[in-house]
Amino acid sequence: MIQTDICIIGAGPVGLFAVFEAGLLKMRCHLIDVLPQVGGQLSEIYPHKPIYDIPGYPTIKAQELIDNQMLQIAPFKPTFSLGERVEHLEKQEDGSYLVTGSDGTAIHCQVVVIAGGLGCFEPRKPDVFNLSLFEKAHVHYMVKDPEKFRDKTIVIAGGGDSALDWTVFLANVAKQVTLVHRSDSFRGAPDSAEKVYELAQQGKINLLLSHNLMALEGTSALQQIRLINKAKEEVFAPADHFIPLYGLSPKLGPIAEWGLTIDKNAIEVNTFDYSTNIERIYAIGDINTYPGKLKLILSGYHEAALMCQSAFKYVYPEQKLSFKYTTVNGVNAF
Amino acid sequence: MIQTDICIIGAGPVGLFAVFEAGLLKMRCHLIDVLPQVGGQLSEIYPHKPIYDIPGYPTIKAQELIDNQMLQIAPFKPTFSLGERVEHLEKQEDGSYLVTGSDGTAIHCQVVVIAGGLGCFEPRKPDVFNLSLFEKAHVHYMVKDPEKFRDKTIVIAGGGDSALDWTVFLANVAKQVTLVHRSDSFRGAPDSAEKVYELAQQGKINLLLSHNLMALEGTSALQQIRLINKAKEEVFAPADHFIPLYGLSPKLGPIAEWGLTIDKNAIEVNTFDYSTNIERIYAIGDINTYPGKLKLILSGYHEAALMCQSAFKYVYPEQKLSFKYTTVNGVNAF
Predict the structure, then answer these.
(1) What are the φ/ψ torsions at residue A55 (nearest 5 degrees)?
(2) What is the Cα gyration radius of chain A?
(3) Which residues make beta-bridge pairs with A33?
(4) Residues of B in contact with A166 (CB under 8 A)
(5) Where is the FAD/NAD(P)-binding domain (chains A, B) (predicted)?
(6) What is the DSSP letter of A69?
(7) What's the pLDDT score for residue A120?
């Protein structure tokens, strides 16, 4: 049995920074993440991609940010259960929690922090015949590495920002890009839609509005996608790869059964401490929502700091919290 | 007349980061700061001090953080009026503002953002005879450079965290440290108070509780401080330097007359966009307050991001704001 003060579900940038803020207040953390390494989507999906909006870094590669955060929290000696999903949560008589993972790891803690980010969601799948047949090798619910599509023939489906942005981006990478959308107007940003219309006019992409997906077709590899237009005519779009970008839906797994208030795809929290409707359970980062919420890493950092000030009362019920600046006191580990 | 979208009062780390977030939304910024250089208290008070709680930087010197932030906002070409105080604010018929500085600079903008931080406050001065006589050379309301006090005899006054922390720190630097407090218990953190008691017991500092300051004394330089104890007896503490640490009081200057809601030393704001009670005026960073507020640079960064999302409607009233990630789109300047 692991004894800790705070059990953090999710070891992405926000979960990792919570370790730092907790450490300043002498609270120990154990992190559990379904991925085999720390860093969340930064390490899993775009480790080599530059990020531009981390304050103080004109640009930093995603993995480099995670590496730096690991150095930053090293003095506080966090412990990890990686490659393990949270299975059970059991409230103890004294108010503390027992968290159990899918490999049987048992973690006893005073406070649970959900920092599951995108990992708590799964892509919305299109309703198209033969999807499962080609899903493994030829269907991509997110663009992890654009180079995979260099000189390929691809079909993107969707009408939001992801679909528009990747259409614009991949127009310069792929051999041929077809964008399919069931409606005749886009939900995404007007200037992105503008760019897509321009590319279509210039013949640089193939734009199919008011078309519905019918079937993925091919003998062994994917070859084409069968569509149906407004006039109920069949249309065929050649495709080596199919990229449906229909957004995400929650995949909270057992967390969904804890009784947390969920608003659309996110856990509702208070803005003063990012606590959920259940005492001692907090949610920070992309998994939470509150008025004005922006899914930015830098917002998750702020949420982690305020959350720790609030969680302190459960870890040290007898102590008065006093706030200190690291510039005066430095970082005093355990 | 300078025409800009957002006029930012204060060019510290939070004001500077607001330029970045505004720039992502194609809003231009002009910054005005009473200090002769950017960076706020980081550059003015502790440029060489390491900061430990900037996410992604295990440690970074204050000036280095500011230098990096200047690089980060360079693509957005902010303009500056440095060494100038805001004097007037005039609402125009169309809702926009005309800001005038002490040197006569006129700035026309759609939105005003107060990011004045500590610069909007001044130290509380003790009521002690001869203060003004020694104020210039021998009285210090903040410790800018501890090395100034190496091998000197100093008297610190106060009962909060600043007084306690600097007493502990300077005990190893100065020749002799006397801590004077009018009460017999401290307001600061219990563990800091504990350290001070220990140092006093070990004879490493001179602790004078329940003593009141009476006068600073000396012929040309400061030589001693006259105090009075509980029994109304005179006590003399030798002193080359006097460091009264009684906290700060607001020094909002003309801003105080704008009708903003002030709570103690800070401007009250909403947590969803950090707007004040006056439309088109926002307050971010150490100058604002809201439930759960922590005076951390990283919180100011978050506040800057949410503020810009809200300010957009005044700069582009006809446009729908669409939120984009820099990882997908990069940083597109003007």
Answers:
(1) -55, 130
(2) 23
(3) A82
(4) 328
(5) 5-291
(6) H
(7) 67
CB atoms within 10 A of CB B237: 21
Q: What phi-psi label fits residue B206: left (phi over 0), alpha (psi between -120 and 50 degrees) or beta?
A: beta
Pairing relationship of beta strands B153-157 and B241-244 according to DSSP bridges: parallel
> Is residue B31 within 8 Å of A32, Cβ to Cβ?
no
Buried b (16+ CB within 10 A) or exposed e, B186-223: bebbeebbebbeebbeeeebbbbbebbbbebbeeeebb
Give the separation between CA B46 and CA B147, rounded to whole angstroms: 12
Q: What is the pLDDT of residues B35-87, one digit of tens each?
A: 889 999 888 878 888 899 999 999 999 999 999 999 999 999 999 999 898 99
**With the C-alpha atoms ordered A257, A258, A263, A266, is the resulting torsion angle positive or negative?**
negative
CB pairs under 8 A between A and B: 162
C-alpha angle B312-B314-B319 in degrees, rounded to nearest 5: 60
More confident residue, B2 or B192: B2
Q: With CA atoms as reference, report the closest residue to B161 among B198, B191, B139.
A: B191
Q: Side-chain half-sphere of B32: how many Cα atoms within 13 Å?
A: 26
Q: How far apart are CA B293 and CA B4, in angstroms?
A: 30
**Cα-based angle B158, B162, B168 (whole degrees, multiple of 5):** 95
**Shortest CA distance to A295 belongs to which of A148, A161, A157, A105?**
A161
Say how far apart CA B182 and CA A250 lie, in whole Å: 58
| Closest to A247 measured CA to CA, from A137, A155, A121, A154 | A121
pTM above 0.95, yes or no: no
Q: Please give the DSSP secondary-structure letter assigned to residue A35.
A: S
Look at strands A266-268 and A288-289 and give their pairing: parallel
The pLDDT of B239-263, averaged and rounded, is: 85
What is the structure's pLDDT at B334?
67
Question: B227 forms bridges with which residues in the sheet?
Answer: B213, B235
- B328 at interface of A, judged by CB pairs closer than 8 A: yes
Contact B24 A53 (CB under 8 A): yes
The answer to the question of whether B86 is labelled as a binding residue is: yes
Q: What is the largest CA-CA distance in chain A?
A: 72
Cβ atoms of B244 and B126 within 8 Å: the answer is yes
Torsions phi, psi of B162, nearest 5? -60, -50
Q: Which of residues 247-306 of B touch A (CB under 8 A)?
A: 271-273, 290-292, 294, 296-299, 301-303, 305-306
Q: Which amino acid is at B192?
A: S
Chain B closest CA to A318's CA: distance in Å?
A: 12
Strands A50-51, A60-61: pairing is antiparallel
pLDDT for B209 equals 97
Please give the share of chain B, as a percent, with pLDDT higher than 70. Answer: 96
Structure token pair of residue A229: 């237009």
Check residue A154 and give its pLDDT: 98
Domains and CATH numbers, chain A: 2-121+248-329 (3.50.50.60), 125-244 (3.50.50.60)
Strands (E) located in B115-201: 121-123, 153-157, 176-181
User: Of A327 and A142, which is predicted with more confidence?
Assistant: A142
Q: Could you count the other beta carbons within 10 Å of the beta carbon of residue B34?
A: 19
Residue A277 has, within 13 A of its CA and on its CB side, a CA count of 11
- Phi then psi dihedrals of residue B23, to 5 deg: -60, -40
Residue B165 annotated in ligand binding:
no
**Amino acid at position B97, single letter:** Y
**Residues B4, B30 contacting (CB under 8 angstroms):** yes
Confidence of residue B333 (pLDDT cuts 50, 70, 90): low
Tell me which DSSP letter residue B317 carries. T
Q: What is the pLDDT of residues B190-246, one digit of tens each?
A: 888 999 999 999 999 999 999 999 999 999 999 999 999 999 999 999 999 999 998
